[in-house]
Amino acid sequence: MRNFDNFTDCYLSLLNDVYNSPDYISSPRGQKVKEKLAVKFVLKNPRNRIPYVRPRKFSMHYMIAELLWYLSGDDSTEWIANYSSFWNNISDDGKTANSAYGARIFKPHGRIANFSLIQWEYIIDELKKDPDSRRAVIHIRSPWDSVSAKLDVPCTLTLQFLIRDEKLHMITNMRSSDLILGIAYDIPAFTMFQEMLALELGVELGTYTHISNSLHIYERHFEMVENILRSEEVGQSKMLQLARGEMPALSKDMPIKEMMLFEKHLRLLNDVEEINALIEEIDGLEIDDVSYWKDWGKILVSHRLKKLGLEKDSIAVQNSTNFVGYHILE
User: What is the pTM of this model?
Assistant: First the structure.
């Protein structure tokens, strides 16, 4: 088991290990991968969750959009495809995503106990009732997925939460982790779940442990990985991480419905003046958690401006956020 202070160092280490010292080279579904089996690592500070690795082109707007999508409990590919067309290519029914984890966590779901519970509410109740419980487990993949899921088989098996010494620790078990397309966004999302739950339970944030039964890199990403691992790029990544650091601590619940309505309104705007007026509206909001909700609204605005071809305006809005960690080239 390896321990890391931040996800950037962790990510670079994992890439190096899998690419340069794989346990196996295999070809599931005819696609060559380098992989290591049963990999386990720990993040000592889950708020230090952003991989500051420029050749990876980590997208802040996608990280935020995906998290909102999860937290809303939505499973439609139409919504999330506005932020990544990837989701249009893996839907089994052309409309929904099996890997929309939020639909299985924050709402009743047919493949999870036949609609009989909301898993997020269950773990809150369980840990409030018995803080020493070992039963606060969220199930993602179910046996039904072995029968019904073809293109989009959930990679995550379980999320487990344990309170020890008044800190909330999280353990994620995954059947499969793609180091390029998957884990770079899974870790930020899962550690946000952990932080939200710690806030709900009134305890401190503990460690985040991740177990990947197959941690792998596809052949089509080998050149990218070689670029990431060049000594000058590794040095740049480490410098970025030191300069930008961890995300701010949460201090109140995320206004999910309001954020989703905001996003819906934003997506209809094509006029720069209307978008600028929306930015002024964001700045005028009386929200305590300015480091999050105002910033996240601005990141979504930045993405909208970029889609409209207004690159300079997009960068200016992104650079107006409070958290310096959002100022990263995609």
Answer: 0.94
